[in-house]
Design brief:
By secondary structure, the chain is α+β, with helices and mostly antiparallel strands. It is 22% helix and 25% strand.
């Protein structure tokens, strides 16, 4: 499981400083890359950097990776926020520091600030706290589009009738 908070251009410097102050000494928002060291991300209007991962240590190279900097993942994040749904990116390559290519897929759900509207697309974009996601490795190069193809079309309310938010969090 991975947590990526939404960070705006104006929030970036303070966000990075805070992470370094809290013990992530080399934390910086970086541009996504399959292999090799990642470079510090150029200025953008908005970032979704990895802040927490169940598989990453505090020294992991993936912390700080901006998933909004890679096209397939960025499009899935946009679909998830626009529709208040779980969205997927299929046939993506997963980061592999050892070498080689690891095909997989990416599933993401938006998390909204508590107590603020998220009924319209604009409200959802503005009030997104971050995204929760999972990268999954495929056992073969074919991820199985038929199995995952409809995942981004189902509203979250149909997945969980008891709540209007997935992982609703306070700011």
């Amino acid at each position: 499981l991975i947590w990526c908070p939404r960070v705006t251009r104006d929030e970036r410097a303070e966000f990075e400083r805070k992470q370094r102050d809290e013990g992530l000494t080399d934390y910086a928002i970086k541009t996504w890359a399959v292999m090799n060291p990642m470079s510090v991300s150029p200025e953008r209007n908005e970032y979704f950097p990895i802040l927490y991962s169940t598989v990453a240590s505090k020294k992991s190279a993936t912390l700080g990776t901006d998933l909004n900097s890679e096209s397939a993942r960025s499009q899935a994040i946009k679909r998830a926020r626009a529709g208040n749904i779980m969205a997927t990116a299929q046939n993506v390559l997963l980061r592999n520091p050892i070498g080689g290519q690891r095909p997989g897929f990416f599933a993401v759900v938006p998390v909204y600030r508590k107590g603020v509207p998220h009924g319209s697309v604009d409200e959802r974009r503005e009030n997104t706290l971050g995204v929760a996601l999972r990268d999954l490795q495929a056992s073969t190069g074919d991820v199985g589009g038929d199995l995952l193809g409809a995942a981004h079309t189902e509203p979250l309310r149909e997945v969980n009738e008891d709540t209007d938010h997935i992982g609703e969090a306070a700011e």
